[in-house]
Specification:
Blueprint lengths: L3 E5 L4 H13 L10 E6 L5 E8 L2 E7 L8 H15 L6 E4 L4 H6 L3 E5 L4 E4 L4 H11 L12 E6 L6 H13 L2 E6 L9 H11 L6 E5 L18 H24 L1 E7 L5 H13 L6 E5 L3 E2 L2 E2 L2 H9 L12 H13 L14
Parallel strand pairs: 4-5, 8-9, 8-11, 9-10, 11-12
Antiparallel strand pairs: 1-2, 2-3, 3-4, 5-7, 6-7, 13-14
Pfam families: Citrate_ly_lig
EC number: 6.2.1.22
Protein name: [Citrate [pro-3S]-lyase] ligase
Length: about 350
């Protein structure tokens, strides 16, 4: 049987409407973050199979019920994989319905974790194990010994603020060592490497704090696709449950983590809900959740979003009391490199 391959980066106009309609008929939603799609069409320009990609995540894969058994899903996966490799992304992820496990295993994907709502897969047989091995190799031998009190913080640090540093300091008051996992999402205002650098510089005087790049296995709401879920509440629950189950079952045990620290969340409802779910799930794995009152400045909780707002407005002077000197210096150099006019910055205080 002959097929016509239609590609888009992403689709627009009539082709996009055709794709959305096909996904809807297969009980899926079109994900607005999609950067590339491929469709296999019959001679009448009807979609028989489709799949899409966003960064290194494959999504919205569907085959018409009357065309199943023809190997179309394999053809779609092959096209998407080629696209990912051409864009320098060799580690490919997939979030899908649990009932799709056997199909995608046959296509070369391996299960990282499965919950009631979500199946999380990757294209590397030992990808997760290699990630855990890296975390271990980045940790001092003393931090891996039995009986050592080990805590953890997972944060975006977009950018790194005095609030983040305060949370690390408070965690170190309760633990011998603290692992700081910096989210790898490149959809943030500052890239993963930038944020990792700012965290490293911002706490390099705290030797018992161990900084890691979290890679693809610590999941944020920004990267979690929900195209296969209809209810908003279920979507939010599925994202945080997958992340917390993966942390509790497969990350914390190898590092000996028994405490996870979070700041209070007076503003963002999503983060507040996530913290509440954390308190329910992580204790099942012997991990206590420690909620620390957020550090304030001039009567307001320090917020990375406020730092970003002032940075985008060129107001580096207004950032001084919110970020460490190391972050301020980085932001000043970055703004200068962008060739944008900034308000002059006086010597930042240490408080």
């Amino acid at each position: 049987m002959e097929f016509v391959k239609l590609e888009g980066r992403p689709f627009k106009g009539k082709e996009l409407e055709l794709l959305k309609d096909f996904l809807k008929r297969n009980d899926l939603d079109y994900d607005q973050g999609i950067e590339y799609s491929v469709c296999l069409l019959d001679e009448n320009y009807r979609i028989l199979a489709t799949g899409s990609a966003e960064q290194n995540v494959l999504k919205c894969i569907a085959v018409d019920k009357n065309a199943r058994g023809l190997g179309l899903s394999g053809s779609v996966i092959s096209c998407l994989t080629q696209y990912e490799f051409e864009n320098g992304r060799s580690h490919i992820l997939m979030y899908t319905k649990p009932e799709n496990r056997e199909m995608f295993e046959d296509l070369g994907f391996y299960t990282v974790l499965m919950t009631d709502d979500v199946l999380f897969m990757e294209n590397r047989k030992k990808g997760f194990e290699e990630f855990v091995d890296r975390l271990i190799s980045e940790s001092p031998a003393e931090a891996l010994k039995p009986g050592v009190a080990v805590g953890s913080i997972v944060a975006n640090c977009n950018p790194f603020t005095y609030g983040h540093r305060y949370l690390v300091e408070q965690a170190l008051n309760c633990c011998d060592y603290v692992h700081v996992l910096v989210l790898a999402d490149n959809r943030s205002s500052f890239g993963a490497d930038e944020r990792f650098f700012m965290v490293q510089e911002g706490i390099k005087d705290l030797p018992r704090a161990i900084v890691h790049q979290a890679a693809d296995f610590v999941i944020s709401a920004a990267t979690f696709p929900t195209y296969f879920m209809k209810e908003k509440v279920r979507r939010e629950r599925a994202c945080c449950h997958l992340d917390l189950e993966l942390f509790g079952r497969r990350i914390a045990p190898v590092l000996g983590i028994t405490k996870r620290f979070v700041g209070t969340e007076p503003v963002c409802a999503v983060t507040g809900h996530y913290n509440e779910e954390m308190k329910k799930i992580l204790p099942r794995y012997g991990i206590s959740v420690m909620e620390i009152e957020r550090k304030g400045f001039e009567g307001e909780a320090i917020s990375a979003s406020e730092v970003r707002k002032r940075y985008e407005n060129g107001d580096l002077e207004g950032i001084k009391g919110l970020v460490p000197e190391t972050t301020l210096q980085y932001l000043e150099k970055k703004k200068e490199a962008e060739g944008l006019r900034v308000k002059p910055v006086s010597k930042a205080s240490d408080c």
